[in-house]
Amino acid sequence: MPELPEVESARAVIERAGLRRRIVDVDDSDTFVCRPHQPGEIKRALLGGELVTAMRRGKSMWCQAAGVDRPVTLGIHLGMSGKIVIADPGGAEIDGGDYWEGRRRPGDYRWARFTLTFEDGGRLMLVDPRRLGRVRLNPPVDALGPDAERITPAQFRAAVTTGTAPIKAHLLDQDRIAGIGNLLADEILWRARIHPARPAGGLTPDEQSHLLRALRDALRAALKADGVHALEIIPFRHQGAACPRDDAPMASGTVGGRTSWWCSAEQRRAGLAGRRLSRPAAQRAGGSAGRRLSGPAAGQEAGKTFPQMLRISLPSPSGGRNTEASGAGEMAGAGLGRGLGPEGVDRSWGPSPRRRRGGLRVFSGVRGLVAGRDVT
Hints:
Helix content is 21%, strand content 21%. It is an alpha+beta fold. A hairpin with a 2-residue loop joins strand 11 and strand 12. Helix 1 crosses helix 6 and helix 5 packs across helix 6 (205-224).
């Protein structure tokens, strides 16, 4: 899913090759991508004009148009798989946006959901296989939080490091800080050595500073590589992987409604923070293979400091899975980011009509791991 670095690469493509070119045709026939506009509405607003700016905040882009009857702004959101492609009449093209691992070849425009045609025969297209991008006039970008690349230390502390919700949920909340998605959040927390489910308001001043520094470092690296796919922890977000920093097993769970990965040794809960555990020690900290923790035992072995229940999976020597559970605490809804819609779709410009399949799975009760319930 495009996050701030991918969207910035798309914005740069528009700035480089899409400005000051007279618009002679607009294909806005996809009513899902161009909602709430009717077919032809965006065309009438832009025809005969030209884009004169390419702006971005977080994961949202917009372009001001000149030479039209009324001042208008064209908003573009890449959704979960969008690219901006600008093609010249001779076949040359440049693109920016989501990283597809080479699946789209030059000249393949079958997933073009919105197209501007210029007077010289060139085209600007939103190419989006999953059809979750968005194009609309005059988007409400002022409703977004500060841009993650430009946020000040004071803004960061006020927006992100307060309250009882998990710190990862706050990082994903586009109303608090705009531009961070699931992969980037995992990278930032891994660099800062902070567990994703730590209560945001429980971070020490030093941890807050480390987190902001990690955010800036991760963004700088991703912007240089034109996407979060090149960040250090991303290839290790799978079962059986070891942390590239200390070789401890990678652990996973659901935090803030999103699948999350972290180092089982360095990103520990309160009471174990800062301990560097070997792989066997990390497995012992998670409980014996196949053991189901409950009641006081769960609290003693896994800590009971978090507001949400988490199911954490670690690989075991026998090939099974070790599980550990946090103690009882505040429950359902604490991890929902206000800027995230169903299935993690950014809803900065309004809720997506798609529904979450099966709801958000959370665990409740005081007896360790019990059956989950769905919250929709």
